[in-house]
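Sorry to interrupt, but I need a hand with the structure work. Leave the record below and I will have a look:
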Amino acid sequence: MILPLLLVALWAVLDWRTVRDGIVRLASSDPRWLLLALVFTCLGWLTAACVRQGALPERLPTGLLIASQFAAGAANHVLPASIGAHAVTLRFLLGRGIPLARATASLALYSVVRPIAKTLVLLVFLVACPGVLVAGDLVPDEGTLFLVAAGATLGLGLTALLVATVRPLRRPLLDALRCALTDVRLLHTRPSRVLALWGGAAAAPVLQASVIFAVGAALGSPLSWAQVTFAFLAASTAVGAVPAPGGIGPIDAAVVVAMVALGAPVEVSATAVIGYRVLTVWLPLLPGALVLSALVQRKVL
């Protein structure tokens, strides 16, 4: 739990003027918009629980599932690429009696569905709001697209190499793959699971963007909800694969650049992202750690 605090402290030391100005601006902003941003933050944990439930045929206890996702959010800011959240969720599923292959398959399905759903939502915004969104400065150039394609190819190649050469990994991975294919077919025959899986995955990035919009509105940002949502979707899609704890750093910078490209002042954009991190990362960090400890002590994890 110390790593994200050290990262935040280091960033604050290196750019203390931005932090100071951001705190001053947040303190004088409209509290009603900040309260709405807090509501959107809480709804984000519910959507995470929905996606987790949608990725499993078995019914999970609602209260414990939501608590596990709140605790997973705290663990997620310690390790990159959602490893902390997946580790907490895996222990929770195993504690509920879910077989290892099925639990691993559900984590893989969760990881695959979320970026697909985010991309689909981004495409919907591009089609539905062509006159509102100015995307020219946000479209990645050929070099960026090449790096993304190369990174994806390298990741798939390394995974295939590990499966082919490391025998202890081969059997559990193949079992998880077979289970995943079976569960995907089963889940998509149940409308409630389809709605929870794809609806929750589509709602999650929209709620995150809504937090930034509400904080920005409290600061007087000129951007509309559609513009802020598009800026967040475009920025997080472009740099979301960068392995940083909780996405702190790369996504923040990309969102600020995207908001500025759409016409928001730099100071307001930076402060809106700071407020977003306060509400979604720093404020829940200690309560999430306490919930995580309580779940471990009660043998839920």
Residues 2-297 form one domain. Residues 1-5 have pLDDT under 50 and may be disordered.
